[in-house]
User: Which sequence fits this backbone?
């Protein structure tokens, strides 16, 4: 049982480049989330999805896009990378929305130079 | 919107001593509160939650948390700290998503360092 798998683990991007952060879960969870973690700032919600085909913006969506074509996958797309997007990105999933069933991936550390 | 605050960036404690990591909350209605732990280069792991009932909640790895409504606090505690407890701890509160359903809103985190 892999849980939530994120790839890549590390990436360095140049300003203006684009990339997709992959997230997959094998628990048949309906809810999936993308958070970014910045030092001293906690985790901020970027986008979320309550099921296949349904996505919505979180607190800090600018510069990102998502899709949810299947229950398992929830990729996060960065277009025109900027230094402000240097962060650690976490994908999480949960069956329902009560918070305790969050399973987190191990994170992607992204540096934009 | 619901929020939580963690007033300490770092807590240092000697192994074997009791530890407390503080969290206060601001919510409308009844709070659903959580503690998560993050070890280096790992994702967050669930420790415990308070939804209703007993004010003392027991969780994983010997941790417990005390819900105090009058002080709007939800402090994490452990009677005897271990070096292996050294990690980043996040308090969180359940908040509503505008499109329906819920999400977690996290505090800024407290780094716990347990020394020999």
Assistant:
């Amino acid at each position: 049982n892999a849980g939530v798998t994120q790839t890549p683990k590390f990436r360095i991007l140049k300003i203006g480049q684009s990339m997709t952060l992959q997230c997959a879960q094998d628990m048949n969870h309906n809810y999936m989330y993308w958070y970014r973690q910045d030092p001293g700032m906690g985790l901020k919600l970027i986008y979320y999805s309550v099921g296949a085909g349904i996505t919505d913006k979180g607190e800090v969506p600018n510069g990102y896009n998502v899709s949810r074509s299947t229950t398992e996958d929830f990729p996060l797309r960065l277009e025109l990378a900027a230094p402000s997007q240097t962060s650690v990105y976490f994908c999480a999933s949960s069956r329902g929305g009560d918070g305790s069933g969050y399973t987190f991936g191990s994170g992607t550390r992204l540096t934009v130079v | 919107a619901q929020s939580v605050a963690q007033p300490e960036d770092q807590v240092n404690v000697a192994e074997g001593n009791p530890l407390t990591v503080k969290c206060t909350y601001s919510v409308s209605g009844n709070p659903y509160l959580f503690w998560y732990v993050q070890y280096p280069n790992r994702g967050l792991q669930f420790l415990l939650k308070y939804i209703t009932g007993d004010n003392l909640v027991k969780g994983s790895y010997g941790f417990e948390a005390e819900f105090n409504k009058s002080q709007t606090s939800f402090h994490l505690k452990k009677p005897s700290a271990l070096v292996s407890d050294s990690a980043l701890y996040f308090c969180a509160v359940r908040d509503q998503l505008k499109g329906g359903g819920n999400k977690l809103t996290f505090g800024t985190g407290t780094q716990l360092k347990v020394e020999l």
In short: Chain B touches chain A through 28 residues (CB under 8 Å).
